[in-house]
Fold this sequence. Notes:
Blueprint: H1 2-42, E1 60-69, H2 73-86, E2 90-109, E3 112-130, H3 134-140, E4 147-157, H4 159-173, H5 175-187, H6 190-219, E5 220-228, E6 232-239, H7 241-245, H8 249-273, H9 275-296
Amino acid sequence: MYTKKLLWLLPLFITAACGSAPNNKESTSGSSRADTAVAAVASQGSYNAPLPLSASERKIVRTADFHCKVENVFASVNKLEQLVKANGGIVQDSRLENISSEIKTSYYKPDSLKQMQTYTTTALLTLKVPYRQLDSVTGAIPGMTIFIDSRTLRQSDVTYQYMANELKNKIGESGTTANALKLARKSKEAIETDQYETGKQEQQIARRIDNMQLMDDVTYATITVAFSQPEQVFMQTIINPEYVTSLPFNTRVHEAINSGSATLSEIAVALISIWPLILLSVAGWIIYRKMRQRKVNPVIRPA
């Protein structure tokens, strides 16, 4: 009889257990949503397996660097700039400079001098060309030179850096951030929540800008070219500064007279300022002469 009563209560226990099961499922679903979102984003692309080296999905940044000697820097610069523009590129920076090494000056005429200056002309260019035209431009540069000091070609793979930015932005746009903000609003102040949202948006914008810059570097290759030519000499006639600044004879005579008069005046003023010493010196001299005359010609008194 007691066993039959337990059998009647069994459905009640089963119903209670089924009713509590959904609550347990809801408590565990919140903690596993982040992993689910990450797995969903990662499964959207072929990120699990490495890309082949020749895959079109790879993001390759191409750069080239040349250091060359040319016969004429100015002519070579103009030719290279026209070549870049013809291939759809731009001249990002172009600088030309003459570096002086020695300056000598020699006599030429009374009023002029001969100046000789040795210098070296250099140029530094930074060029941007479509990556498909990189080989055409770099292949034409040796024909403009007489000697190549160095040449560097570099390919930098930024594929995974680009993918990392995309994945981070997709995770930030998923529901994980929204759920985290809902929980934050329950336990934190509204200002802290707004700061959190603003920080997440700024990070997403920074990653988007970073990817835009990466795509720009991938689409357009950068070429740096340094030109220099053999040392040259530049000669010119310049004015002799000593001749130009020299005074005429009449002016110099007039200045000499004025200078002598000024000197004489200074001497007279100096003598006047020491007149007591002069007077004492004259008196002493007179007394000395009289005493000496007495010694030479003694006075003979009558007996």
